[in-house]
């Protein structure tokens, strides 16, 4: 086995270094080119856009796909999720969304407790959905867009809930509060040029605080019972009153018809009598005989037995066999 002295080892190292030192510039050049190429190509995802800066100044916005930029820190590209809809929750937190959504058991009363217009306290929980409308404004005009959305939403919601009575906020005015909150939020965000567009604001749950929930439930039950009794009374009213009005109207119409019939009949009889009187004055005997004959024609068909007697006879008893049976 051959022994090497330290000087031999150093000489061998020097020789190897001299042999590879001829390739060092090429290796450095290749590494530099690789760095330039890798720093010049960047990719933007489908739901994003790229905000490009050159020496810190905004130059353009790029769409999804592969793009080139100046390397070595000259150009800087920041991806912004423009197509994604973000959601912020107030008064609660979702731990795991899905078919069986899990929510945090922690209470966020500093966000959800609010005063109504009649100085009652409500636990209000809502969500805000928003998206990036202008990536340049989001990057350069705001320091923390999410905090801005949360602060503006909470201020608007507290002000709106304070304009309504507790019963209105609990029941009839929830949709109205949501719509107004969305409009007011958008106005403020536009005023400060945040580049954010509010998609929707929705009240999910509005309840009284837990310590007073039993009292609120009793009040609501009493109000529901009151409404039920009022509706039942109106139902009975709508059944009885229209029927009575209909019967009264029917009676009035029948009386009016009866009166009109009697009046028309009386007028007809009077006109008939006057016409007959005029004819009688023209020919009394003829009219008298005509009236007699007309009366007999009306009466005789109603008679069962008819007897014709001689005016000269003083009695008809000898001629009649009353209650006799004929063979």
From TrEMBL:
Gene3D superfamilies linked: Band 7 domain
SUPFAM superfamilies: Band 7/SPFH domain
Membrane topology recorded in Swiss-Prot or TrEMBL: Single-pass membrane protein
Keyword entries, A-Z: Hydrolase, Membrane, Protease, Transmembrane, Transmembrane helix
Domain Band: 39-220
GO biological process per UniProt: proteolysis
Gene Ontology CC terms: membrane
Subunit structure, interactors included: HflC and HflK may interact to form a multimeric complex.
Protein's name according to its UniProt entry: Protein HflK
Chain's gene name: hflK
